[in-house]
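Holo prediction — NAP.
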Amino acid sequence: MRKYNVAIVGATGAVGEELFRVLEEVDFPINKIVPLASSKSAGIDIEYKGKNYKVLELTESVFEEQDVEIAFFSAGGSISAQFAPFAAEAGAVVIDNTSHFRMDADVPLVVPECNPGDIAQWKNRGIIANPNCSTIQMVQVLKPLDDIFGIKRVDVSTYQAVSGAGKAGMEELVNQMQDFFAFRLSECEPKTFPYQIALNLIPQIDVFMENDYTKEEMKMVNETQKILGKNIEVSATCVRVPVMRSHSEAITIHFEKDVNVERAVEALRNAENVVVLDDPSKKEYPMPIISTDTNDTFVGRIRKDLNRSNVLHLWCVADQIRVGAATNAVRIAQKWIAMDA
Ligand SMILES: NC(=O)c1ccc[n+]([C@@H]2O[C@H](COP(=O)([O-])OP(=O)(O)OC[C@H]3O[C@@H](n4cnc5c(N)ncnc54)[C@H](OP(=O)(O)O)[C@@H]3O)[C@@H](O)[C@H]2O)c1
């Protein structure tokens, strides 16, 4: 099998480190791996398949110099904006985990289980965008139901883990929990989050827009419509919760047709990379302690609305650093190779 020169931009970050793990797990066809980060990390070792690789400083010329063919970007939107065009110029396909290119009309926004055909548009700019972590797990559940019952509207409330804000987010929760047990939590000084996150909930992720929705909420609205290729109504309330890893979502779906719960459950059981955990009698339902470190999207609490026959409620949980970033990006790369694009 043909092997590729693969670069990981943001190799030392939460998503970057997970990319190494997922690439190894799927035995991705790698000829050479090129870890890239900022100057402060240049020279440190990263282990891949038992071998150490030196992190190189990200520069505009490194993609040409290293003959990179596939470049995973997860170092923030401004880094992708500046450096992704150079990677594409050097002939690499860029798979970008940031929000910078997601809503550009000529850049495909892909969840391989929902819209794999859109990958062919990579030729436009050499870039494929990986959606927002909360959007990915939701559309994986919506698509199989939309194919049967036709979705009109979706209302979602998210419970997003602190690792969604990277390593700094995880460190801030751990430090505050230590402060709590040392009876000095009231002295904590939040940096990554607007308020104390330990033993608290924060109904704000990213900045507020003029319409009083947050940027995170509008990403879920706009990206869901782009991926499903239809202007369904979507409303989102995104909340940061003191959980280390895995995002959870309470989703209410309004359909064109009356919904049959048995058929809906069957469709989800047959959906790729979706696991149904749903037996109230046994207290069986998805939770972050189940989904973390897995590549599956878990769904449960699937039930019809008490008043409307075309409305379904469900609960969806997935490891957002994997399903919502690294794993989705690697699955895009695998499809790209298979499409021999
Ligand atoms: N965390 C999630 O759940 C998640 C999910 C989906 C998408 N994303 C997106 O993925 C991106 C990375 O998120 P993360 O959670 O992995 O963040 P993180 O843990 O803070 O890691 C950031 C990475 O970016 C690198 N970086 C920062 N400034 C750089 C520069 N000037 N030049 C080169 N590299 C630089 C850092 O390298 P140094 O160590 O050298 O500073 C580090 O490797 C973000 O855009 C985020 O929105 C994150």
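READOUT: The domain at 4-131+325-340 is CATH 3.40.50.720 (Rossmann fold).
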